[in-house]
Design brief:
It is a single chain. Helix content is 35%, strand content 18%. The chain is built from eleven helices and 14 strands. It has helices spanning 11-23, 50-53, 107-119, 143-157, 168-174, 191-197, 214-226, 252-261, 270-274, 277-289, 316-333; strands spanning 2-5, 27-32, 37-42, 58-62, 82-85, 88-90, 96-100, 124-126, 160-164, 180-183, 204-207, 232-236, 266-268, 294-298. Helix 3 links the parallel strand 7 (96-100) and strand 8 (124-126). Helix 3 (107-119) runs parallel beside helix 4 (143-157). The chain is elongated, with a radius of gyration of 21 Å. It starts with a strand and ends with a helix. The chain binds phosphoenolpyruvate (PEP) and manganese (II) ion. Residues 102, 128, 132, 184-186, 207, 237, 269, 272 line the site of phosphoenolpyruvate.
Length: 336
């Protein structure tokens, strides 16, 4: 059961609500976010929620049987738009393309990517400065200095930054330079990281774990929300299956189901979703048709020379064509 409290609830009304919850044998969790105050109440007994719903100080009350609560569409029926900046949002009708290299490599690469984004009216640039790599000997990113250099250039161009944070200790130093914090697939159930990202007021792009279920992704999102941050974007980036013909299996079904089960926006990452450059575009369009609120994709001026994930990275020509096709596909997706 979720109870949304009125902003200006009086102390005695609040106490009365807690006593009633206690009286029906439910345990309560107090949640306070940048947008509201909630009581998430957990219990088994069936009772008439009007007994609590009619009390003073309550804005809304819902029974939610899912393991995840605040991110559930049973709680919030309308769709959520996550604001990125004053004039930019993802979800509830706002579709965004996020493009850029797998890794930030240097100034010239950043400058060239920004130019490509500007030419295609893309407002959000992706790139990693802390890279989770399977081998410790692979390129692991330029770190905070790379992020500062990147940020300086995007500022001039009015482009927003989405980049991965790998551990709690990195958050504070990254905060001034990041517009959306990405939680990578390998960290999708790093609950300490999710807790900490719940305490900041910045959008989080939460990727699905390599072997994470839809429910597990939504419960990971619940960690962030329940710690105080409602600005969450879910990301389907492919899961590991028995199939070896491609890097991952992008679960298009998950896009449809996530949009049904949650009010949060969902984006797709077709680059990691298939891992094969020549097929990224079709997969991206499939994601758009499935109802994604955005696409995050890897683009590089010379994919063959990229420091990481070149095999799944589009060149500018492929990227430009795909961007046009995505806008057309989006129009079609909206008709069904
Ligand atoms: C990435 O975005 O480059 C990345 C490492 O993603 P994922 O966590 O989905 O593998
Ligand atoms: Mn990558």
């Amino acid at each position: 059961m979720i109870i949304q409290l009125q902003e200006n609830i009086e102390e005695h009304s609040y106490q009365e609500i807690l006593d009633k919850i206690d009286g029906v044998g439910y345990k309560h969790n107090e949640i306070s976010t940048q947008y509201g105050k909630y009581l998430v109440c957990i219990g088994k007994k069936d009772f008439d929620i009007r007994r609590i719903g009619s009390l003073a100080g309550i804005k809304d009350i819902h029974r939610v049987s899912d393991a995840y609560k605040l991110v559930s569409s049973k709680w919030k029926v309308g769709k959520t738009a996550v604001p990125i900046s004053e004039d930019l949002a993802v979800g509830n009708g706002d579709f965004q393309i996020m493009a850029g290299p797998c890794s930030i490599e240097g100034e010239a690469q950043v400058r060239s990517t920004i130019q490509h984004l500007l030419e295609n009216n893309i407002k959000i640039m992706r790139g990693g400065v802390y890279k989770p790599r399977s081998s410790p000997y692979s390129f692991r990113g330029l770190g905070i200095d790379g992020l500062k250099m990147w940020h300086e250039q995007t500022q001039e161009a009015g482009i927003k930054i989405v980049t991965e944070v790998m551990q709690v200790s990195q958050i504070e130093s990254m905060l001034p330079y990041v517009d959306i914090f990405q939680v990578g697939a390998r960290n999708s159930q790093n609950f300490n990281l999710l807790d900490a990202l719940g305490e900041i007021d910045k959008p989080i792009l939460l990727k699905r774990g390599m072997s994470g279920t839809i429910d597990e992704l939504l419960q990971a999102a619940e960690y962030i929300f329940s710690n105080g941050n409602e600005k969450i974007i879910l990301c389907e980036r492919g899961i590991r299956t028995y199939e070896k013909a491609y890097r991952n299996t992008m679960d298009i079904n998950a896009v449809i189901l996530l949009k049904e089960k949650s009010h949060l926006p969902v984006v797709v990452d077709p680059s990691h979703g298939i891992g094969l450059r020549d097929h990224v575009s079709r997969l991206a369009l499939a994601g758009v048709m499935a109802g994604a609120d955005g696409v995050i994709m890897e683009v590089h001026h010379e994919p063959e020379k990229a420091f990481s994930d070149g095999q799944q990275t589009l060149n500018y020509q492929q990227s430009g064509r795909l961007i046009d096709a995505m806008h057309k596909t989006r129009e079609l997706a909206l008709t069904i």
